[in-house]
Design brief:
Layout (H helix, E strand, L loop, with lengths): L1 H9 L8 H9 L7 H31 L7 H22 L10 H16 L2 H10 L12 E4 L4 E4 L6 H11 L4 H6 L4 H8 L5 H12 L5 E6 L2 H14 L4 H15 L14 H10 L11 H5 L1 H4 L3 E4 L3 H12 L25 H15 L4 H17 L5 H4 L4
Helix pairs in contact: 3-4, 7-9, 11-17, 12-13, 13-18
């Protein structure tokens, strides 16, 4: 009796009416446990359950055929089949279906560029672009193109997406001393343009032909979630302006949105995020590069980038880009990676900082009305579509 009581304490309390429900409750207490451990648990539970089923069948056959009747071959076959069925059912319950497939970085980059090309050939994208792009702006897009021929990299600069980092790097590749770059930190684009002439459309077409001919070179853009970028612009240029130009912009925002003139000798209060958004939406002719769209800044359907870096996976993507450019082999073209950490939201691309940035974005967007958000999304809709960013979490705020 004591031995039986100990066995009952150790054995799992399988409910005869709902053993599957008990297993789900037990196995899913910690779904993050390693798959191998979950499989071992599944196997052990299956064996225990199968043993109980077999014993039940044996007792039932014993009652049917009388005491002392042995286990028949049919009973054994039935028990084995039943065990296999139970094991399959358990695997269906615990395995994540479909099984996760881990893509290589090369496959991810290929998928990004292939998706952009597919979207660019879509009539819907082309018609939407015609509605959101000023007619004169195609002549301005190439002002953001920089081509480093020795390295083999054509880059389109987008403000608020690691642009200062890459501008520093392009100046470094051009042989500009660090001291001079540091002195002209706020004018790095003008400094870079001295060494990188403004390309023409024919120049870009020639670079694309080189890629098609197998010459090693890349056409790159760096992007991030458009709403994260817009909120970052507000935080860095309106809340904490780094120049008098954006300090004065506060006055224009109050004048445009509220019809209030703030005198020069008066302290300018910080406009709310809703006020800043309304100002940007009304002044469609004010295409500041910090909040202008990727579509306008880079004309990605013409550029046809071969490499799309996302700020959310910045370190991993850039490391792969360097391998494709073979930059580690030449000391003269070394990559000053330790300098490329100026974006305050990224901080090495950690998951924690990315989560904080997303939380800040959602908090700011919650300050808008549903109408303001709809208009803001329409402004950046092409950026969301072309670069595979999901806006559903933002729309959920206004349901």
């Amino acid at each position: 009796m004591e031995a039986r009581a100990r066995m009952e304490l150790v054995s799992p309390p399988w409910p005869s009416e709902d053993w599957v429900g008990y297993f789900r409750e037990f196995a899913f207490r910690d779904f993050t446990r390693p798959l191998s451990r979950r499989l071992r648990l599944a196997a052990s539970f299956t064996v225990l359950r199968s043993r109980r089923v077999v014993m039940s069948l044996v007792k039932r056959r014993g009652r049917e055929f009388g005491a002392g009747a042995g286990v028949t071959t049919g009973t054994l076959v039935l028990s084995i089949v039943l065990s296999v069925v139970v094991l399959c059912a358990v695997l269906v319950l615990i395995l994540p279906w479909p099984l996760p497939y881990s893509q290589s970085v090369e496959e991810i980059i290929h998928d990004r560029t292939a998706y952009l090309r597919e979207q660019c050939h879509s009539a819907a994208v082309l018609s939407a672009g015609a509605d959101t792009t000023p007619k004169y702006y195609y002549q301005q897009a190439f002002h953001n193109y920089f081509y480093q021929a020795r390295v083999g990299l054509l880059w389109c600069s987008i403000s608020k997406v690691a642009s200062s980092s890459w501008m520093y790097q392009f100046n470094q590749w051009a042989g500009v001393p660090r001291e001079k770059i540091d002195r002209m930190a706020t004018e790095m684009k003008a400094l870079a343009r001295v060494n990188y002439p403004l390309p023409t459309r024919a120049d870009v077409e020639q670079i694309k032909l080189l890629s098609a001919a197998g010459v090693a070179n890349e056409r790159m853009v760096v992007v991030r979630d458009p709403m994260d970028r817009f909120v970052s612009t507000y935080e860095d240029l309106i809340v904490r302006p780094k120049s008098n130009n954006y300090l004065h912009l506060r006055r224009f925002i109050f004048r445009e949105v509220h019809g209030v003139n703030v005198m020069q000798n008066e302290t300018v209060p910080v406009p709310s995020f809703a006020d800043f958004t309304e100002f940007v939406l009304r002044r469609t002719n004010l295409l500041d590069p910090h909040w202008n769209s990727y579509w306008n800044l880079c004309d990605p359907c013409f550029l046809e980038p071969t490499f799309i870096v996302k700020l959310e996976t910045y370190d991993r993507d850039v490391a792969h880009l360097l391998r494709r450019l073979n930059l580690t082999a030449s000391k003269a073209d070394r990559f000053e990676g330790h300098r490329l950490n100026v974006n305050h939201d990224r901080k090495g691309g950690s998951q924690t900082s990315s989560t904080k940035s997303r939380s800040s974005t959602i908090d700011r967007l919650a300050e808008l009305t549903a109408d303001q958000f709809e208009r803001l999304y329409h402004r950046y809709e092409l950026d969301f579509r072309l670069f595979q960013y999901d806006a559903s979490q933002y729309f959920a705020l206004f349901k």
